[in-house]
Amino acid sequence: MSLEQHRGTYGFRFAEQPGLPLCGLFAIGFEQERSHTYNWNGLTRSDGPLLLFQYTLEGCGELEVEGRHYRMERGQAFLVEIPGAHRYWLPDDTEEWEFLYILLRPHPVMGIWEEIKDRIGETPFLPLGSGPIAALNDIYREALTGKITDLYTASAHTYRFMMELARFSLNKGASGAAWPPTVKAAVQYMESNYSGMVGQEQLAQELGVSKYHFLRTFAAFTGMTPGEYLSRVRIEKAISLLRQSNLSIDEVAASVGYSSGSYFIKVFRKLTGQTPARFRSSRELPYSRLFFD
């Protein structure tokens, strides 16, 4: 099955519960745009008020917010309010823009949202293995497999995403630009060499730094250990292989750097809540649905 069959948008229209501080999930999507007619204007949309977080996976797009212009490259996200003075589109010099996005109701998370933007800005860089992106992937997979069926489940997922984003934003280097050179180099090395790495000691040697000082610094700026970060990168790569290829589970494990298929299954289950085989078999569900209570 091709990756295109996994793309789609999942909308949620659960009845609100007045007086309860529940987070409203409006939609979650995984899309690849190749048409240069793709162009959203935040002042002409009629589906607000909403909060939009959109994360670039491949390709790039363009964003303009109140006259400020940004090129949205791989690993960059943007945070905007709908309605609002912003516009985003696929530029003429780019063939595609692949991204994950989530649309939220402003109540009761608006205060946290504004605090996050104050800390990391409206176009932060987030590593693929970071907590917010892992949470976003989890929400999309839960929607894909039909598991978000009521207001409370939707609220729990939304709250987790917002808390991961807030926790990420607490670190002054969370935008990536202010990370120490060793942390930037470590992230780049892991995302390029995830299939062949042995451990944290090897990583420290590659960077030419003290292992213990490096571990403390990495955790302080990313909110996780290098081992945890590497596991998230490997599992995200494994998910792509499970979606796009007919490789066996052992072959997928070896491709992303695990010498043991059983250990790969253990890590996959820990991070996703299901085995690789179960994840692969769930792909036959419809790729886009709208849920009602």
Q: What share of the residues does DSSP label as strand, in percent?
A: 15-25%
Q: Secondary-structure element order, as H and E?
A: EEEEEEEEEHHHHHHHHHHE
Number of separate strands = 10
As residue ranges, the low-confidence spans are: 283-293
CATH architecture label name of the largest domain: Sandwich
- Total discrete domains: 2
Helix content: 40-55%
**What structural class is derived from the secondary structure elements?**
alpha+beta
Sheet with most strands: strand arrangement: 7-4-9-2-1-10
- Termini separation: 30 Å
The CATH topology assignment of the largest domain is Jelly Rolls
What's the quick description here?
The chain is α+β, with helices and mostly antiparallel strands and 293 residues long.
Give a description of the structure.
The chain is 42% helix and 20% strand. With 293 residues, the protein is α+β, with helices and mostly antiparallel strands. It has 2 domains: 3-174, Regulatory protein AraC (Jelly Rolls); 181-284, Orthogonal Bundle (Arc Repressor Mutant, subunit A), CATH 1.10.10. Strands 7-4-9-2-1-10 form a 6-stranded mixed β-sheet. Helix 2 runs antiparallel to helix 3, helix 4 packs parallel to helix 7 and helix 8 (249-255) packs across helix 9. It is globular. The chain starts with 7 loop residues before the first strand and ends with a strand. Keywords: Activator, DNA-binding, Transcription, Transcription regulation. Residues 184-282 form the HTH araC/xylS-type domain.
